[in-house]
Design brief:
The protein is of the alpha/beta class. It is 55% helix and 12% strand. The radius of gyration is 16 Å and the shape is globular. Bound molecules: shikimate-3-phosphate.
């Protein structure tokens, strides 16, 4: 495939509950790309849930698995894909470098209250279990902000917006770039 016809990958990053999977799927459907979710890939590879990996190996064990997966994906060099990532994928510098190599990195920016509303009653995120979820979300978001900024090629706000609209905004940017480069 010529360089001009190559479809870049999109890598969707953002906090838990920002809509990475939903919006990633939309981008894939609208642009004819294939969708992948890194949490699901890790679960398929290990045969157990993210919660079980956290319980057995701790957060560090899970982060190690995330890095191994990214290394594998970058090594494969596939294009025409959309990857939704786990919210903490951006924590390691090594991962941020790998994410950049994997594709165009889109950061879904979300407010703490939106996360709280969307994830009320959720039991699948080990880092948000227990009391005072608002404090947990606010602190975690604050501590991760610079990592998201560093990892992202561009950012899109998601609060109060429909997934299809956000996906179109992301793809619109691609069309504008292609026009500027006279690819279309
Ligand atoms: C995590 C986010 C989760 C999952 C794991 C850790 C995080 O993915 O990878 O529970 O550290 O933010 P989602 O962002 O898809 O919920």
């Amino acid at each position: 495939m010529s360089e001009q016809n190559r479809k870049t990958n999109y890598v969707v990053i953002g906090f838990m509950g920002s809509g990475k999977t939903t919006i990633g799927r939309r981008i894939a459907a609208l642009s004819g790309r294939e969708f992948f979710d890194t949490d699901v890939m890790i679960e398929q590879e290990t045969g157990v849930s993210v919660t079980e990996i956290f319980a057995a190996e701790g957060e560090e064990g899970f982060r190690r698995r995330e890095t191994q997966l990214l290394q594998k994906l970058v090594g494969e060099g596939a294009d025409g894909r959309v990857y939704a990532t786990g919210g903490g994928m951006i924590l390691r510098q090594e991962n941020r470098d790998l994410l950049h190599r994997l594709g165009e990195v889109v950061w879904l920016q979300v407010k703490p209250q939106t996360v709280i509303d969307r994830l009320s009653g959720d039991t699948t995120r080990p880092l948000l279990q227990g009391d005072d979820r608002m404090r947990k979300v606010t602190d975690l978001m604050q501590s991760r902000r610079s990592c998201y900024e560093d990892a992202a090629d561009f950012a899109v706000s998601v609060d109060g917006r429909r997934p299809a609209e956000i996906a179109r905004q992301i793809l619109c940017r691609e069309n504008q770039k292609a026009l500027l480069e006279r690819r279309i």
